[in-house]
Amino acid sequence: MKRLSLVVMAVALAVGLVCLVAVPAVSDEEMPEVTKKKINLEDCPEAVKNTIKKEAGDNKVAVVEVTEGDRKTYEATWTTDDATVVITVAADGKLLSKDVKKTEMEE
To answer: What is the pTM (predicted TM-score) of this model?
Structure first.
């Protein structure tokens, strides 16, 4: 039984060492710089603008932010009668995410 425990510990240690060697460390210098800035909806690429307008419908888009890093994305925010909506759109106009948060009604 003692021998089995030693074998299990040795295998676990070996796997741990392999993982340490196999996963290279990423330094801050290798991380792409990410910038985020507010822009006007009209300054977005046509495909992005069309997706935002389609998703927002008749609601007024309050904020559009462009994020640039390893890829460029656009985040648009608007409110409806009962929710705040935030979508993320790729530079080619593809809808990447949609987050709808219901607002609490005051009594």
So the answer is: 0.68
Q: Which residues contact 93 (CB under 8 A, 6 or more apart)?
A: 45, 46, 47, 48, 50, 51
DSSP three-state, residue 43: helix
What residues does each domain of the chain span? 28-102
What is the Cα 60 distance to its own chain's centre? 23
Q: Residue 39 in contact with residue 64, Cβ under 8 Å?
A: yes
The CATH code belonging to domain 28-102 is: 3.10.450.360
Residue 3: how many CA atoms within 13 Å on its side-chain side? 0
Instruction: Give the whole-angstrom CA distance, residue 107 versus residue 104.
Output: 9
Per-residue 3-state assignment (H helix, E strand, C coil) for 76-107: EEEECCCEEEEEEEECCCCEEEEEEEECCCCC
Q: What digits encode the pLDDT tens for the residues 24-78? A: 555 556 777 889 999 999 999 999 999 999 999 999 999 999 999 889 999 999 9
